[in-house]
Amino acid sequence: MIRSMQDIRKRKVPLTETLMSDPDYILQHVQQENLITRREYTNIRSVQRSSEGRVIDLLDKVMDKGEETCRRFLSLLQQPEVQDTFPPLKKLCSGEFTDNPIQETQNAALSEYRMSSLPRGHCLIFNNQHFETESLKERKGSYQDAEALEKVFSWLGFRVHVLQDQPVQEMRSQLQQFSRVEHSDCFVCCVLSHGAEQGIYGRDGALLRIQDVLSPFNGANCPSLANKPKVFFIQACQGKRVQEAVAVHADCPGGHRPGDGCRRNSWLHPSCGFRLPRRHGHRSGMRLYQTQRQWQLVHPGPLPRADPQGCLRGEDILTILTRVNEEVSRREGDLCSQYGPQLAKQMPDPRFTLRKRLVFPVPSISSPTL
Predict the structure, then answer these.
(1) Residue 86 φ then ψ, to 5°
(2) Is 194 a catalytic site residue?
(3) What residues does the Caspase family p20 domain cover (predicted)?
(4) Where are the beta strands (DSSP E) in 204-316?
(5) What is the spatial distance between Cα 165 and Cα 172, in angstroms, rounded to a whole number?
(6) Among 167, 242, 164, 163, which Cα is nearest to 200's?
């Protein structure tokens, strides 16, 4: 009888999607139960892979060890503290398994996260505008974004903390400090800086990994935020490559095509109207590891001036960010390259593991002027 192994194999995709929200937590428990050796635990953690990849490695390792190990692994997933950390496990382990989780989500009415405390929680803003290295230029105008964020989150009832031009070690220290304070309903962290595919730059030119921003607030490191929403906004470059603007040719009157004054990598014919980022509709840009749980939202990319109207309409955060994507996708900038003038586009890339609607209630005072 190989029932347990079959169950893991059948549920491998939803198990991966669930456990990848905090792979370090499940790895620690699996190793503590002696389901894998200390060396196997170290090898899985040390591999430079995404959270998803590490969970896949773990599941494969468990199945390779045979039926008894698979049975003990499923028993581990049914422990109350593990299911409190990964709530979807309650349904996966109860036999109420569906091969169509999307349809299941559509049929279920989504509840909302509690947002009744005042203050709602802490909002931590890192604004790195000036840098000590010549390779990182001043981010002119960044203070205006920081001020807008401060106004909006103060208006929404958060206790806002703005930290200017922080070196990486101080950023780490502040993140650790905030992970140890008492939190209420929600936590928000905004990082405005230069960046690369590997992470975010501090004032000193050192690089802070995205993982180092997120991990202080997981369930193991920050118990007071367990099962509460955490929102991370990251405004940072993701490298030096330019995302080209691509004309929507179906909207071009007169049959204009590239080559008819509508060159793909340069100026586009004025009659073409709207241009899309080359990778719109894709999960492009920086790979952001979903190391938190079902309550995390990570939003990398440009932060347009926050518009409180979405909150006034009672919209949830994902609806608001979808509108942000639409707004930003219609913007374009002119860059000078070795090939001449070039139109460049931007596209935010929200990643989330929220399990409920996240709505910020409208305060009684009027919305801020931005």
Answers:
(1) -125, 80
(2) yes
(3) 119-241
(4) 207-209, 230-235, 245-247, 275-277, 296-300
(5) 13
(6) 167
Is there a contact between 287 and 198 (Cβ–Cβ < 8 Å)? no
Sequence-ordered list of residues with C-beta below 8 angstroms from that of 255, at least 6 positions apart, any chain: none
Phi, psi for 337 (deg, rounded to 5): -125, 180
- Determine the Cα angle at 107 with ends 103 and 110, to 5°: 115
How far out from the chain centre does Cα 167 lie?
23
CA–CA distances in Å: residue 302 to residues 20, 225, 234, 328? 26, 27, 8, 8
| Phi-psi map region of 368: left, alpha, beta (phi>0 left; psi -120 to 50 alpha) | beta
Closest among 93, 69, 103, 72 to 19, alpha carbons compared: 93
User: Each residue of 284-305: pLDDT tens digit?
Assistant: 233 333 333 334 555 544 444 4
Query: Among the options 122, 183, 194, 256, which is catalytic?
Result: 194
Q: Quick check: is 262 catalytic?
A: no
Q: Which residues pair with 123 in a beta bridge?
A: 160, 188
**5, 64 Cβ separation under 8 angstroms:** no
> Over the stretch 115-161, which tens digit does the pLDDT of each residue have?
888 899 999 999 999 999 999 999 988 999 999 999 999 999 999 99
Burial class, 108, CB count within 10 angstroms (exposed 0-12 / middle 13-18 / buried 19+):
exposed
Which one of 29, 161, 237, 269 is the catalytic residue?
Answer: 237
Max Cα distance, the chain (Å)? 69
